[in-house]
Amino acid sequence: MALENDYEILERLGEGAFGTVYKARHRRSDDVCAIKQIKIGAKSWDEALRSTELQALKALRHPFIVRLRELIRSALDGSLYYIFEFITSDLFRLLRQYPHGMEELRALELTRQLFAGVAHIHQHNFFHRDIKPENVLYDTAHETVRIADFGEARSLRARPPFTDYVGTRWYRAPECLLRDRTYSSPVDVWASGLVFAELQRGSAVFCGTSSIDQLYKIFQVLGAPIGDWPDFKRLAEACRFRMPAGT
């Protein structure tokens, strides 16, 4: 199947570190879809097919996770294209309509869906590592979410160390901010909890300007984790982090 023959590109939706996303139409069925062009770079075709992102997308089938429809290799340039269902919006854009937060029951329902999707990811031995409002698509017609963008995903069977500079700072778990490279699936739970709070507040909870500032803002609200986090002292000393006064 040739991408150029079967799909008409309608518009460019965005570009990230791992690829460019387009809105497209299937020429025969007239269905609208999203197409992600993957930046293979120096990777071979076989390496691209073994990527964790693709393995996760193929393995995960859930109402609240974006669905991969097919995989296409372009006949023109050899690029790899993921064909997804098209979802109209995301939680980032939805939140713009609620600068002071949305109604509690609605926030709870969207969060229930988000955590159900996250649980499914973890049950299938993956973790996402970049949960944030922009990566949670929102179907306006059915008021349901889809977790998307698995470019940072890793297998729970993989052995650390992992990179500590992962995810978006405002949603990055404290262990990553403290440069712990043995973290795991709880980083998704932390980020999902912050998305829940943001749905109710209308704005992000911890808006640090750096990793250290992010930690300060977290601990000023939640207090010192020394008693229930045995590794905290070691991690803090390793990156020369000092608790803010009053915590």
From TrEMBL:
A GO CC term attached to the entry: nucleus
Record has Methyltransferase as a keyword: no
Keywords annotated in UniProt: ATP-binding, Kinase, Nucleotide-binding, Serine/threonine-protein kinase, Transferase
InterPro entries, alphabetized: CDK (IPR050108), Kinase-like_dom_sf (IPR011009), Prot_kinase_dom (IPR000719), Protein_kinase_ATP_BS (IPR017441), Ser/Thr_kinase_AS (IPR008271)
MF (Gene Ontology): ATP binding; protein serine/threonine kinase activity
Binding site for ATP: K36
Annotated PROSITE patterns: PROTEIN_KINASE_ATP (PS00107), PROTEIN_KINASE_DOM (PS50011), PROTEIN_KINASE_ST (PS00108)
Record text on subunit structure and interactions: May form a complex composed of at least the catalytic subunit CRK2 and a cyclin.
Family: Belongs to the protein kinase superfamily. CMGC Ser/Thr protein kinase family. CDC2/CDKX subfamily.
The protein's name: Cyclin-dependent kinase 2 homolog
Organism of origin: Alexandrium catenella
Organism classification: Eukaryota, Sar, Alveolata, Dinophyceae, Gonyaulacales
